[in-house]
Amino acid sequence: MALLSVLTPVLALLLCLVIGFVFLRSRETSRTPGKDKEASKLDFRPWVDQDLQDDTEITERDEDEWVDNDEEDDLPHVPYSPPRYCEETMLQRSKDFYTLMNQRRSVRFISPEPVPKEVIDNIILTAGTAPSGAHTEPWTFVVVSDPETKHQVRLIVEKEEEVNYRQRMGDKWVHDLAKFRTNWIKEYLDVAPYLILIFKQTYGILPNGKKETHYYNEISVSISCGILLASLQNAGLVTVTTTPLNCGPQLRILLKRPANEKLLMLLPVGYAAAAATVPDLKRKHLEDIMVHV
Amino acid sequence: MALLSVLTPVLALLLCLVIGFVFLRSRETSRTPGKDKEASKLDFRPWVDQDLQDDTEITERDEDEWVDNDEEDDLPHVPYSPPRYCEETMLQRSKDFYTLMNQRRSVRFISPEPVPKEVIDNIILTAGTAPSGAHTEPWTFVVVSDPETKHQVRLIVEKEEEVNYRQRMGDKWVHDLAKFRTNWIKEYLDVAPYLILIFKQTYGILPNGKKETHYYNEISVSISCGILLASLQNAGLVTVTTTPLNCGPQLRILLKRPANEKLLMLLPVGYAAAAATVPDLKRKHLEDIMVHV
Protein backbone atom coordinates (compact mmCIF):
# COMPACT_ATOMS: atom_id res chain seq x y z
CA MET A 1 0.00 0.00 0.00
CA ALA A 2 2.90 2.31 0.82
CA LEU A 3 4.40 1.38 -2.52
CA LEU A 4 1.13 2.24 -4.23
CA SER A 5 1.02 5.56 -2.42
CA VAL A 6 4.48 6.32 -3.66
CA LEU A 7 3.41 5.34 -7.16
CA THR A 8 0.36 7.60 -7.16
CA PRO A 9 2.17 10.82 -8.23
CA VAL A 10 4.03 8.82 -10.89
CA LEU A 11 0.75 7.48 -12.25
CA ALA A 12 -0.79 10.96 -12.12
CA LEU A 13 2.18 12.36 -14.05
CA LEU A 14 1.95 9.55 -16.63
CA LEU A 15 -1.75 10.22 -17.00
CA CYS A 16 -1.10 13.93 -17.59
CA LEU A 17 1.55 13.13 -20.20
CA VAL A 18 -0.71 10.71 -22.06
CA ILE A 19 -3.63 13.14 -22.00
CA GLY A 20 -1.35 15.91 -23.27
CA PHE A 21 -0.19 13.66 -26.09
CA VAL A 22 -3.75 12.76 -27.06
CA PHE A 23 -4.65 16.46 -27.04
CA LEU A 24 -1.75 17.37 -29.34
CA ARG A 25 -2.53 14.53 -31.73
CA SER A 26 -6.18 15.44 -31.91
CA ARG A 27 -5.21 19.04 -32.70
CA GLU A 28 -3.03 17.80 -35.52
CA THR A 29 -5.67 15.54 -37.01
CA SER A 30 -8.51 17.99 -36.54
CA ARG A 31 -7.19 20.20 -39.31
CA THR A 32 -9.75 20.02 -42.08
CA PRO A 33 -9.24 16.83 -44.08
CA GLY A 34 -9.47 18.94 -47.25
CA LYS A 35 -6.31 20.81 -46.30
CA ASP A 36 -4.43 17.64 -45.51
CA LYS A 37 -5.49 16.14 -48.78
CA GLU A 38 -4.44 19.23 -50.67
CA ALA A 39 -1.08 19.16 -49.03
CA SER A 40 -0.48 15.54 -49.92
CA LYS A 41 -1.66 16.23 -53.43
CA LEU A 42 0.75 19.08 -53.80
CA ASP A 43 3.51 16.65 -53.01
CA PHE A 44 2.62 14.45 -55.93
CA ARG A 45 1.26 16.96 -58.42
CA PRO A 46 3.28 20.14 -57.95
CA TRP A 47 1.86 21.50 -61.19
CA VAL A 48 -1.74 21.24 -60.05
CA ASP A 49 -3.21 24.45 -58.84
CA GLN A 50 -5.29 24.11 -55.71
CA ASP A 51 -7.90 26.10 -57.54
CA LEU A 52 -8.01 23.49 -60.31
CA GLN A 53 -9.45 20.85 -58.00
CA ASP A 54 -13.08 19.93 -58.24
CA ASP A 55 -14.79 21.70 -55.40
CA THR A 56 -16.70 18.54 -54.81
CA GLU A 57 -13.43 17.13 -53.55
CA ILE A 58 -12.35 19.86 -51.25
CA THR A 59 -15.44 21.45 -49.78
CA GLU A 60 -17.64 20.01 -47.16
CA ARG A 61 -21.10 19.46 -48.39
CA ASP A 62 -24.29 20.00 -46.56
CA GLU A 63 -26.31 17.29 -48.24
CA ASP A 64 -29.51 19.16 -47.57
CA GLU A 65 -28.27 22.03 -49.67
CA TRP A 66 -27.95 19.85 -52.74
CA VAL A 67 -31.05 19.42 -54.78
CA ASP A 68 -31.91 17.50 -57.88
CA ASN A 69 -30.54 18.91 -61.09
CA ASP A 70 -33.76 19.21 -62.90
CA GLU A 71 -37.36 18.77 -62.04
CA GLU A 72 -38.20 17.77 -65.60
CA ASP A 73 -37.92 14.03 -65.13
CA ASP A 74 -40.47 13.42 -67.77
CA LEU A 75 -38.72 15.37 -70.47
CA PRO A 76 -40.29 14.27 -73.76
CA HIS A 77 -38.08 12.33 -76.15
CA VAL A 78 -38.10 13.56 -79.71
CA PRO A 79 -36.97 11.89 -82.95
CA TYR A 80 -33.39 12.70 -83.93
CA SER A 81 -32.02 12.57 -87.48
CA PRO A 82 -28.52 14.01 -87.66
CA PRO A 83 -26.81 14.86 -90.97
CA ARG A 84 -25.76 11.70 -92.78
CA TYR A 85 -23.40 11.45 -95.73
CA CYS A 86 -22.63 8.76 -98.30
CA GLU A 87 -19.41 6.81 -97.61
CA GLU A 88 -17.37 8.75 -100.12
CA THR A 89 -18.43 12.12 -98.72
CA MET A 90 -17.94 10.93 -95.17
CA LEU A 91 -14.44 9.80 -95.97
CA GLN A 92 -13.62 13.09 -97.67
CA ARG A 93 -15.06 15.14 -94.80
CA SER A 94 -13.12 13.16 -92.20
CA LYS A 95 -9.93 13.64 -94.23
CA ASP A 96 -10.50 17.38 -94.72
CA PHE A 97 -11.25 17.94 -91.05
CA TYR A 98 -8.11 16.04 -90.09
CA THR A 99 -6.04 18.16 -92.50
CA LEU A 100 -7.47 21.34 -90.99
CA MET A 101 -6.97 20.26 -87.38
CA ASN A 102 -3.54 18.88 -88.07
CA GLN A 103 -2.43 22.38 -89.03
CA ARG A 104 -3.31 23.59 -85.53
CA ARG A 105 -0.36 24.47 -83.34
CA SER A 106 -0.03 26.20 -80.00
CA VAL A 107 1.08 29.72 -80.91
CA ARG A 108 2.71 32.12 -78.48
CA PHE A 109 3.12 34.95 -81.03
CA ILE A 110 -0.24 36.58 -81.55
CA SER A 111 -1.01 39.58 -83.74
CA PRO A 112 -2.64 42.65 -82.13
CA GLU A 113 -4.97 43.03 -85.15
CA PRO A 114 -8.63 43.22 -84.16
CA VAL A 115 -10.91 40.22 -84.68
CA PRO A 116 -14.69 40.65 -85.09
CA LYS A 117 -16.43 39.99 -81.78
CA GLU A 118 -19.18 38.09 -83.60
CA VAL A 119 -16.64 35.41 -84.55
CA ILE A 120 -15.73 35.01 -80.88
CA ASP A 121 -19.43 34.79 -80.01
CA ASN A 122 -19.89 31.95 -82.50
CA ILE A 123 -16.83 30.17 -81.12
CA ILE A 124 -18.16 30.36 -77.56
CA LEU A 125 -21.58 29.18 -78.73
CA THR A 126 -19.85 26.24 -80.41
CA ALA A 127 -17.92 25.38 -77.23
CA GLY A 128 -21.26 25.44 -75.41
CA THR A 129 -22.52 22.53 -77.54
CA ALA A 130 -20.24 20.11 -75.67
CA PRO A 131 -21.83 17.28 -73.73
CA SER A 132 -21.65 17.53 -69.93
CA GLY A 133 -22.41 15.29 -66.96
CA ALA A 134 -26.22 15.20 -66.56
CA HIS A 135 -26.40 18.19 -69.01
CA THR A 136 -25.29 20.64 -66.34
CA GLU A 137 -23.28 22.80 -68.84
CA PRO A 138 -20.82 23.70 -66.06
CA TRP A 139 -18.82 26.36 -67.95
CA THR A 140 -18.33 30.12 -67.98
CA PHE A 141 -16.27 31.71 -70.74
CA VAL A 142 -14.93 35.11 -69.75
CA VAL A 143 -13.84 37.02 -72.86
CA VAL A 144 -11.52 39.90 -72.03
CA SER A 145 -10.86 42.58 -74.64
CA ASP A 146 -10.49 45.60 -72.32
CA PRO A 147 -6.77 46.54 -72.46
CA GLU A 148 -6.56 47.51 -68.80
CA THR A 149 -8.09 44.21 -67.64
CA LYS A 150 -5.83 42.26 -70.00
CA HIS A 151 -2.88 44.03 -68.42
CA GLN A 152 -4.10 43.19 -64.92
CA VAL A 153 -4.38 39.55 -66.00
CA ARG A 154 -0.83 39.72 -67.32
CA LEU A 155 0.51 41.18 -64.07
CA ILE A 156 -1.13 38.44 -62.02
CA VAL A 157 0.02 35.65 -64.32
CA GLU A 158 3.59 36.90 -64.67
CA LYS A 159 4.00 37.42 -60.94
CA GLU A 160 2.87 33.88 -60.15
CA GLU A 161 4.62 32.33 -63.14
CA GLU A 162 7.92 33.82 -62.07
CA VAL A 163 7.50 32.18 -58.67
CA ASN A 164 6.46 28.96 -60.41
CA TYR A 165 9.53 28.93 -62.60
CA ARG A 166 11.90 29.96 -59.83
CA GLN A 167 10.51 27.85 -57.01
CA ARG A 168 7.47 25.68 -57.46
CA MET A 169 7.99 23.78 -60.67
CA GLY A 170 11.33 22.21 -59.96
CA ASP A 171 14.25 21.83 -62.34
CA LYS A 172 12.76 18.84 -64.11
CA TRP A 173 9.60 20.55 -65.22
CA VAL A 174 11.37 23.75 -66.22
CA HIS A 175 13.71 21.56 -68.23
CA ASP A 176 10.75 19.78 -69.88
CA LEU A 177 9.38 23.14 -70.97
CA ALA A 178 12.69 24.51 -72.22
CA LYS A 179 12.10 23.23 -75.72
CA PHE A 180 8.99 25.38 -75.98
CA ARG A 181 11.11 28.43 -75.01
CA THR A 182 8.49 29.38 -72.47
CA ASN A 183 9.21 31.48 -69.43
CA TRP A 184 7.21 33.76 -67.19
CA ILE A 185 7.14 36.70 -69.62
CA LYS A 186 3.73 36.51 -71.32
CA GLU A 187 3.63 39.41 -73.75
CA TYR A 188 0.73 37.82 -75.58
CA LEU A 189 -1.54 38.59 -72.64
CA ASP A 190 -1.32 42.30 -73.51
CA VAL A 191 -1.09 41.83 -77.27
CA ALA A 192 -3.83 39.32 -78.14
CA PRO A 193 -7.13 41.05 -78.95
CA TYR A 194 -8.97 38.59 -76.71
CA LEU A 195 -8.21 36.50 -73.67
CA ILE A 196 -10.68 33.70 -73.06
CA LEU A 197 -10.65 32.52 -69.46
CA ILE A 198 -12.50 29.24 -69.08
CA PHE A 199 -14.02 28.61 -65.67
CA LYS A 200 -15.49 25.33 -64.53
CA GLN A 201 -18.48 25.64 -62.23
CA THR A 202 -17.73 23.14 -59.52
CA TYR A 203 -21.38 23.24 -58.50
CA GLY A 204 -24.42 25.09 -59.76
CA ILE A 205 -26.52 27.65 -57.92
CA LEU A 206 -30.22 27.54 -58.66
CA PRO A 207 -32.50 30.61 -58.67
CA ASN A 208 -33.71 29.62 -55.19
CA GLY A 209 -30.13 29.67 -53.91
CA LYS A 210 -29.82 25.88 -53.60
CA LYS A 211 -26.79 24.10 -54.98
CA GLU A 212 -26.84 21.46 -57.69
CA THR A 213 -24.19 18.82 -58.26
CA HIS A 214 -22.00 19.24 -61.34
CA TYR A 215 -20.92 15.70 -62.13
CA TYR A 216 -17.57 15.37 -63.91
CA ASN A 217 -17.31 19.14 -64.29
CA GLU A 218 -13.57 19.22 -65.08
CA ILE A 219 -13.83 16.56 -67.81
CA SER A 220 -16.92 18.27 -69.26
CA VAL A 221 -15.28 21.70 -69.42
CA SER A 222 -12.10 20.21 -70.91
CA ILE A 223 -14.16 18.52 -73.65
CA SER A 224 -15.82 21.87 -74.28
CA CYS A 225 -12.37 23.43 -74.54
CA GLY A 226 -11.43 20.83 -77.19
CA ILE A 227 -14.44 21.87 -79.27
CA LEU A 228 -13.50 25.53 -78.71
CA LEU A 229 -9.97 24.86 -80.01
CA ALA A 230 -11.42 23.15 -83.09
CA SER A 231 -13.69 26.12 -83.64
CA LEU A 232 -10.81 28.62 -83.36
CA GLN A 233 -8.78 26.62 -85.86
CA ASN A 234 -11.76 26.44 -88.21
CA ALA A 235 -12.01 30.24 -88.10
CA GLY A 236 -8.30 30.78 -88.80
CA LEU A 237 -7.46 32.00 -85.31
CA VAL A 238 -4.70 30.78 -83.00
CA THR A 239 -4.17 30.32 -79.29
CA VAL A 240 -2.00 28.53 -76.77
CA THR A 241 -3.66 26.37 -74.11
CA THR A 242 -2.38 27.58 -70.74
CA THR A 243 -3.19 26.58 -67.19
CA PRO A 244 -1.63 29.34 -65.09
CA LEU A 245 -0.55 27.77 -61.82
CA ASN A 246 -1.89 29.42 -58.66
CA CYS A 247 -3.44 32.37 -60.51
CA GLY A 248 -6.99 31.04 -60.34
CA PRO A 249 -8.21 32.75 -57.18
CA GLN A 250 -6.70 36.15 -58.10
CA LEU A 251 -8.08 36.03 -61.64
CA ARG A 252 -11.45 34.90 -60.39
CA ILE A 253 -11.60 37.91 -58.07
CA LEU A 254 -10.30 40.30 -60.76
CA LEU A 255 -13.05 39.10 -63.10
CA LYS A 256 -15.69 39.10 -60.34
CA ARG A 257 -16.59 35.43 -60.78
CA PRO A 258 -18.44 33.67 -57.96
CA ALA A 259 -16.80 31.18 -55.60
CA ASN A 260 -18.25 28.11 -57.33
CA GLU A 261 -16.21 28.92 -60.46
CA LYS A 262 -12.57 27.82 -60.74
CA LEU A 263 -10.23 28.82 -63.55
CA LEU A 264 -9.39 25.83 -65.73
CA MET A 265 -7.68 27.42 -68.72
CA LEU A 266 -6.58 30.75 -70.14
CA LEU A 267 -6.45 31.14 -73.92
CA PRO A 268 -5.03 34.24 -75.63
CA VAL A 269 -6.81 34.48 -78.99
CA GLY A 270 -6.11 36.29 -82.25
CA TYR A 271 -4.46 35.90 -85.63
CA ALA A 272 -0.97 34.44 -85.67
CA ALA A 273 1.69 37.17 -85.78
CA ALA A 274 3.41 37.49 -89.15
CA ALA A 275 6.69 36.38 -87.60
CA ALA A 276 5.17 33.54 -85.55
CA THR A 277 7.33 30.48 -85.03
CA VAL A 278 6.63 27.14 -83.37
CA PRO A 279 8.94 24.39 -82.13
CA ASP A 280 9.45 21.77 -84.81
CA LEU A 281 7.52 19.05 -82.95
CA LYS A 282 6.07 15.97 -84.60
CA ARG A 283 2.88 14.15 -83.69
CA LYS A 284 2.71 10.45 -82.95
CA HIS A 285 1.71 8.15 -85.82
CA LEU A 286 -1.70 6.47 -85.94
CA GLU A 287 -0.27 3.10 -84.88
CA ASP A 288 1.21 4.74 -81.79
CA ILE A 289 -2.09 6.13 -80.54
CA MET A 290 -4.67 3.62 -81.86
CA VAL A 291 -5.16 -0.06 -81.06
CA HIS A 292 -7.70 -2.00 -83.12
CA VAL A 293 -9.40 -5.04 -81.60
CA MET B 1 -2.13 10.06 1.80
CA ALA B 2 -4.80 7.46 2.48
CA LEU B 3 -7.05 9.23 0.02
CA LEU B 4 -4.27 9.14 -2.56
CA SER B 5 -3.81 5.44 -1.89
CA VAL B 6 -7.46 4.87 -2.54
CA LEU B 7 -7.22 6.91 -5.73
CA THR B 8 -4.27 4.90 -7.07
CA PRO B 9 -6.31 2.07 -8.63
CA VAL B 10 -8.66 4.66 -10.14
CA LEU B 11 -5.71 6.50 -11.67
CA ALA B 12 -4.26 3.22 -12.95
CA LEU B 13 -7.58 2.32 -14.53
CA LEU B 14 -7.86 5.78 -16.12
CA LEU B 15 -4.32 5.41 -17.46
CA CYS B 16 -5.18 2.03 -19.01
CA LEU B 17 -8.31 3.47 -20.63
CA VAL B 18 -6.44 6.45 -22.09
CA ILE B 19 -3.62 4.25 -23.41
CA GLY B 20 -6.18 1.90 -24.95
CA PHE B 21 -7.87 4.87 -26.63
CA VAL B 22 -4.57 6.16 -28.01
CA PHE B 23 -3.77 2.71 -29.36
CA LEU B 24 -7.13 2.41 -31.14
CA ARG B 25 -6.79 5.89 -32.62
CA SER B 26 -3.29 5.24 -33.86
CA ARG B 27 -4.48 2.03 -35.54
CA GLU B 28 -7.23 3.97 -37.27
CA THR B 29 -4.94 6.71 -38.53
CA SER B 30 -2.15 4.35 -39.55
CA ARG B 31 -4.12 3.08 -42.53
CA THR B 32 -2.25 4.15 -45.64
CA PRO B 33 -2.91 7.81 -46.38
CA GLY B 34 -3.65 6.92 -50.01
CA LYS B 35 -6.53 4.71 -48.97
CA ASP B 36 -7.88 7.34 -46.63
CA LYS B 37 -7.76 9.87 -49.38
CA GLU B 38 -9.59 7.60 -51.74
CA ALA B 39 -12.17 6.86 -49.12
CA SER B 40 -12.77 10.51 -48.34
CA LYS B 41 -12.92 11.21 -52.05
CA LEU B 42 -15.54 8.56 -52.52
CA ASP B 43 -17.58 10.35 -49.90
CA PHE B 44 -17.50 13.59 -51.82
CA ARG B 45 -17.40 12.34 -55.42
CA PRO B 46 -19.34 9.07 -55.46
CA TRP B 47 -19.34 9.18 -59.26
CA VAL B 48 -15.59 9.27 -59.58
CA ASP B 49 -14.02 5.97 -60.36
CA GLN B 50 -10.82 5.29 -58.48
CA ASP B 51 -9.37 4.36 -61.82
CA LEU B 52 -10.14 7.82 -63.15
CA GLN B 53 -7.66 9.49 -60.80
CA ASP B 54 -4.36 10.71 -62.10
CA ASP B 55 -1.84 8.12 -61.14
CA THR B 56 0.41 10.94 -60.08
CA GLU B 57 -1.99 11.45 -57.19
CA ILE B 58 -2.29 7.95 -55.94
CA THR B 59 0.97 6.18 -56.59
CA GLU B 60 4.18 6.67 -54.77
CA ARG B 61 6.84 7.96 -56.99
CA ASP B 62 10.45 7.06 -57.02
CA GLU B 63 11.85 10.37 -58.20
CA ASP B 64 14.88 8.66 -59.66
CA GLU B 65 12.68 6.71 -62.01
CA TRP B 66 11.32 9.86 -63.58
CA VAL B 67 13.33 11.32 -66.37
CA ASP B 68 13.02 14.39 -68.51
CA ASN B 69 10.37 14.26 -71.16
CA ASP B 70 12.53 14.97 -74.06
CA GLU B 71 16.16 15.36 -74.65
CA GLU B 72 15.59 17.72 -77.57
CA ASP B 73 15.84 20.91 -75.60
CA ASP B 74 17.16 22.75 -78.56
CA LEU B 75 14.33 21.87 -80.87
CA PRO B 76 14.54 24.29 -83.80
CA HIS B 77 11.73 26.80 -84.11
CA VAL B 78 10.17 27.09 -87.55
CA PRO B 79 7.97 29.79 -89.13
CA TYR B 80 4.24 29.12 -88.79
CA SER B 81 1.56 30.50 -91.10
CA PRO B 82 -1.84 28.96 -90.38
CA PRO B 83 -4.81 29.34 -92.75
CA ARG B 84 -6.24 32.86 -92.58
CA TYR B 85 -9.54 34.06 -93.97
CA CYS B 86 -11.06 37.45 -94.68
CA GLU B 87 -13.52 38.68 -92.05
CA GLU B 88 -16.57 37.71 -94.04
CA THR B 89 -15.34 34.16 -94.66
CA MET B 90 -14.23 33.81 -91.06
CA LEU B 91 -17.66 34.87 -89.85
CA GLN B 92 -19.37 32.45 -92.21
CA ARG B 93 -17.07 29.57 -91.25
CA SER B 94 -17.59 30.18 -87.53
CA LYS B 95 -21.37 30.26 -88.09
CA ASP B 96 -21.39 27.08 -90.20
CA PHE B 97 -19.25 25.20 -87.70
CA TYR B 98 -21.55 26.28 -84.88
CA THR B 99 -24.59 25.11 -86.86
CA LEU B 100 -22.96 21.73 -87.45
CA MET B 101 -21.84 21.25 -83.86
CA ASN B 102 -25.14 22.49 -82.48
CA GLN B 103 -26.83 19.56 -84.21
CA ARG B 104 -24.72 17.15 -82.16
CA ARG B 105 -26.58 15.23 -79.49
CA SER B 106 -25.67 12.30 -77.27
CA VAL B 107 -27.36 9.35 -78.97
CA ARG B 108 -28.07 6.02 -77.26
CA PHE B 109 -29.73 4.43 -80.30
CA ILE B 110 -27.04 3.42 -82.73
CA SER B 111 -27.48 1.61 -86.03
CA PRO B 112 -25.62 -1.69 -86.56
CA GLU B 113 -24.76 -0.64 -90.16
CA PRO B 114 -21.04 -0.89 -90.88
CA VAL B 115 -18.92 2.27 -91.06
CA PRO B 116 -15.69 2.37 -93.13
CA LYS B 117 -12.71 1.84 -90.85
CA GLU B 118 -10.78 4.52 -92.72
CA VAL B 119 -13.23 7.14 -91.41
CA ILE B 120 -12.53 5.96 -87.85
CA ASP B 121 -8.79 6.16 -88.57
CA ASN B 122 -9.15 9.78 -89.69
CA ILE B 123 -11.21 10.59 -86.61
CA ILE B 124 -8.57 9.13 -84.28
CA LEU B 125 -5.84 10.97 -86.17
CA THR B 126 -7.82 14.17 -85.69
CA ALA B 127 -8.22 13.53 -81.95
CA GLY B 128 -4.45 13.07 -81.83
CA THR B 129 -3.90 16.68 -82.96
CA ALA B 130 -5.01 17.95 -79.53
CA PRO B 131 -2.53 19.92 -77.46
CA SER B 132 -1.17 18.17 -74.36
CA GLY B 133 0.92 19.14 -71.34
CA ALA B 134 4.56 19.39 -72.51
CA HIS B 135 3.46 17.64 -75.78
CA THR B 136 3.33 14.24 -74.10
CA GLU B 137 0.31 13.07 -76.18
CA PRO B 138 -0.89 10.94 -73.24
CA TRP B 139 -3.71 9.07 -75.04
CA THR B 140 -4.48 5.61 -76.34
CA PHE B 141 -7.61 5.04 -78.42
CA VAL B 142 -8.73 1.43 -78.40
CA VAL B 143 -11.15 0.81 -81.27
CA VAL B 144 -13.19 -2.36 -80.77
CA SER B 145 -15.09 -3.84 -83.72
CA ASP B 146 -14.75 -7.54 -82.83
CA PRO B 147 -18.27 -8.67 -81.80
CA GLU B 148 -17.05 -11.02 -79.07
CA THR B 149 -14.90 -8.31 -77.46
CA LYS B 150 -17.74 -5.79 -77.71
CA HIS B 151 -19.94 -8.29 -75.90
CA GLN B 152 -17.33 -8.80 -73.18
CA VAL B 153 -17.20 -5.02 -72.75
CA ARG B 154 -20.98 -4.97 -72.45
CA LEU B 155 -21.00 -7.69 -69.80
CA ILE B 156 -18.44 -5.84 -67.70
CA VAL B 157 -20.18 -2.48 -68.05
CA GLU B 158 -23.68 -3.81 -67.37
CA LYS B 159 -22.59 -5.77 -64.33
CA GLU B 160 -20.93 -2.74 -62.76
CA GLU B 161 -23.59 -0.30 -63.89
CA GLU B 162 -26.29 -2.37 -62.26
CA VAL B 163 -24.39 -2.16 -58.97
CA ASN B 164 -23.87 1.57 -59.58
CA TYR B 165 -27.54 2.20 -60.13
CA ARG B 166 -28.66 -0.04 -57.28
CA GLN B 167 -26.08 0.90 -54.69
CA ARG B 168 -23.29 3.32 -55.44
CA MET B 169 -24.89 6.28 -57.12
CA GLY B 170 -27.52 7.17 -54.58
CA ASP B 171 -31.11 8.18 -55.20
CA LYS B 172 -30.24 11.75 -56.10
CA TRP B 173 -27.95 10.90 -58.97
CA VAL B 174 -30.24 8.18 -60.33
CA HIS B 175 -33.01 10.77 -60.18
CA ASP B 176 -30.85 13.31 -62.04
CA LEU B 177 -30.32 10.78 -64.80
CA ALA B 178 -33.96 9.73 -65.02
CA LYS B 179 -34.72 12.32 -67.67
CA PHE B 180 -32.17 10.72 -69.97
CA ARG B 181 -33.97 7.37 -69.52
CA THR B 182 -30.64 5.73 -68.86
CA ASN B 183 -30.25 2.54 -66.89
CA TRP B 184 -27.73 -0.26 -66.74
CA ILE B 185 -28.90 -2.00 -69.92
CA LYS B 186 -26.47 -0.86 -72.64
CA GLU B 187 -27.62 -2.55 -75.83
CA TYR B 188 -25.59 -0.13 -77.90
CA LEU B 189 -22.39 -1.80 -76.68
CA ASP B 190 -23.28 -4.85 -78.78
CA VAL B 191 -24.97 -2.98 -81.60
CA ALA B 192 -22.62 -0.10 -82.44
CA PRO B 193 -20.10 -1.09 -85.13
CA TYR B 194 -17.30 0.46 -83.06
CA LEU B 195 -16.57 1.11 -79.44
CA ILE B 196 -13.82 3.66 -78.85
CA LEU B 197 -12.28 3.32 -75.39
CA ILE B 198 -10.16 6.33 -74.54
CA PHE B 199 -7.35 5.69 -72.09
CA LYS B 200 -5.25 8.39 -70.44
CA GLN B 201 -1.63 7.47 -69.90
CA THR B 202 -0.99 8.62 -66.36
CA TYR B 203 2.72 8.45 -67.05
CA GLY B 204 4.81 7.51 -70.06
CA ILE B 205 7.26 4.64 -70.41
CA LEU B 206 10.34 5.36 -72.48
CA PRO B 207 12.12 2.76 -74.62
CA ASN B 208 14.73 2.41 -71.86
CA GLY B 209 11.98 1.53 -69.36
CA LYS B 210 12.17 4.84 -67.49
CA LYS B 211 8.99 6.74 -66.69
CA GLU B 212 8.17 10.23 -67.93
CA THR B 213 5.75 12.64 -66.27
CA HIS B 214 2.49 13.27 -68.10
CA TYR B 215 1.48 16.73 -66.89
CA TYR B 216 -2.26 17.41 -66.87
CA ASN B 217 -2.97 14.10 -68.56
CA GLU B 218 -6.68 14.02 -67.74
CA ILE B 219 -7.33 17.53 -69.04
CA SER B 220 -5.27 16.82 -72.17
CA VAL B 221 -7.12 13.61 -72.99
CA SER B 222 -10.48 15.27 -72.33
CA ILE B 223 -9.57 18.08 -74.76
CA SER B 224 -8.62 15.41 -77.28
CA CYS B 225 -12.00 13.78 -76.71
CA GLY B 226 -13.70 17.11 -77.48
CA ILE B 227 -11.90 17.25 -80.83
CA LEU B 228 -12.85 13.60 -81.44
CA LEU B 229 -16.53 14.41 -80.81
CA ALA B 230 -16.30 17.32 -83.26
CA SER B 231 -14.73 15.01 -85.81
CA LEU B 232 -17.46 12.35 -85.40
CA GLN B 233 -20.15 14.98 -85.84
CA ASN B 234 -18.37 16.35 -88.92
CA ALA B 235 -18.44 12.84 -90.43
CA GLY B 236 -22.13 12.30 -89.71
CA LEU B 237 -21.60 9.73 -86.97
CA VAL B 238 -23.05 9.70 -83.47
CA THR B 239 -21.98 8.62 -80.00
CA VAL B 240 -22.77 9.08 -76.34
CA THR B 241 -20.01 10.15 -73.96
CA THR B 242 -19.91 7.61 -71.15
CA THR B 243 -17.63 7.20 -68.14
CA PRO B 244 -18.44 3.71 -66.86
CA LEU B 245 -17.93 3.78 -63.12
CA ASN B 246 -15.58 1.16 -61.69
CA CYS B 247 -15.18 -0.69 -65.01
CA GLY B 248 -11.78 0.80 -65.80
CA PRO B 249 -9.54 -1.93 -64.34
CA GLN B 250 -11.57 -4.80 -65.83
CA LEU B 251 -11.76 -3.19 -69.27
CA ARG B 252 -8.07 -2.36 -69.17
CA ILE B 253 -7.26 -6.01 -68.50
CA LEU B 254 -9.75 -7.25 -71.13
CA LEU B 255 -8.10 -4.99 -73.70
CA LYS B 256 -4.58 -5.83 -72.51
CA ARG B 257 -3.63 -2.22 -71.79
CA PRO B 258 -0.64 -1.56 -69.51
CA ALA B 259 -0.96 -0.36 -65.92
CA ASN B 260 -0.07 3.25 -66.75
CA GLU B 261 -3.26 3.56 -68.80
CA LYS B 262 -6.58 4.35 -67.14
CA LEU B 263 -9.93 4.34 -68.88
CA LEU B 264 -11.33 7.87 -69.17
CA MET B 265 -14.24 7.44 -71.58
CA LEU B 266 -16.11 4.86 -73.61
CA LEU B 267 -17.79 5.95 -76.83
CA PRO B 268 -20.05 3.67 -78.87
CA VAL B 269 -19.81 4.94 -82.46
CA GLY B 270 -21.94 4.49 -85.59
CA TYR B 271 -24.80 6.03 -87.54
CA ALA B 272 -27.85 7.08 -85.58
CA ALA B 273 -30.56 4.38 -85.67
CA ALA B 274 -33.51 5.27 -87.88
CA ALA B 275 -35.78 5.39 -84.82
CA ALA B 276 -33.31 7.30 -82.63
CA THR B 277 -34.79 9.72 -80.13
CA VAL B 278 -33.18 12.19 -77.73
CA PRO B 279 -34.56 14.00 -74.69
CA ASP B 280 -35.86 17.42 -75.65
CA LEU B 281 -33.13 19.35 -73.85
CA LYS B 282 -32.20 22.95 -74.58
CA ARG B 283 -28.77 24.52 -74.40
CA LYS B 284 -28.00 27.65 -72.42
CA HIS B 285 -28.05 30.97 -74.27
CA LEU B 286 -24.85 32.85 -75.10
CA GLU B 287 -25.41 35.39 -72.31
CA ASP B 288 -25.65 32.54 -69.80
CA ILE B 289 -22.27 31.07 -70.66
CA MET B 290 -20.22 34.10 -71.81
CA VAL B 291 -19.14 37.20 -69.91
CA HIS B 292 -17.49 40.02 -71.87
CA VAL B 293 -15.07 42.35 -70.11
From TrEMBL, chains A, B:
Cofactor(s) essential for the protein: FMN
Keywords: Flavoprotein, FMN, Oxidoreductase
EC number(s) recorded for this UniProt protein: 1.21.1.1
Stored InterPro entries: Nitroreductase, Nitroreductase-like, Nitroreductase/BluB
Keyword Oxidoreductase listed: yes
GO annotation (BP), single: tyrosine metabolic process
Region span, Disordered: 53-82
GO cellular-component term (any): plasma membrane
Alphabetized Pfam families for the sequence: Nitroreductase
Record field: compositional bias (Acidic residues): 53-74
All residue ranges annotated as the Nitroreductase domain in the record: 103-271
Reaction it catalyzes: bromide + L-tyrosine + NADP(+) = 3-bromo-L-tyrosine + NADPH; iodide + L-tyrosine + NADP(+) = 3-iodo-L-tyrosine + NADPH; 3-iodo-L-tyrosine + iodide + NADP(+) = 3,5-diiodo-L-tyrosine + NADPH + H(+); L-tyrosine + chloride + NADP(+) = 3-chloro-L-tyrosine + NADPH
One Gene Ontology molecular-function label: FMN binding
Sequence similarity: Belongs to the nitroreductase family.
Protein name: iodotyrosine deiodinase
Species the sequence originates in: Nothobranchius furzeri
Chain's gene name: IYD
